[in-house]
From TrEMBL:
Belongs to the UPF0337 (CsbD) family. Transmembrane segments: none annotated. Keywords: Coiled coil. The lineage of its organism: Bacteria, Bacillati, Actinomycetota, Actinomycetes, Micrococcales. Residues 30-57 form a coiled coil. Pfam families: CsbD. Residues 5-57 form the CsbD-like domain. This is CsbD family protein.
């Protein structure tokens, strides 16, 4: 996994967490769900990058 992808995924995850917390604090269910969605997407991208790396090492 490239450093750039790692940073990008971490940033996406942090933004998602911020949205989720803000949504909870303000009672905005849509923002909260969007935040959770962003976190899941970042985790999936990270997992995909790890799989790619595993195949490259072979």
């Amino acid at each position: 996994m490239s450093l750039r992808d790692t940073i990008k995924n971490a940033a996406k995850k942090l933004v998602g967490r911020a949205k989720e917390v803000t949504g909870k604090a303000t009672g905005n269910d849509k923002l909260e769900a969007e935040g959770r969605s962003d976190q899941v997407k970042a985790n999936l991208r990270q997992a995909a990058e790890k799989v790619k790396d595993a195949f490259r090492k072979r």
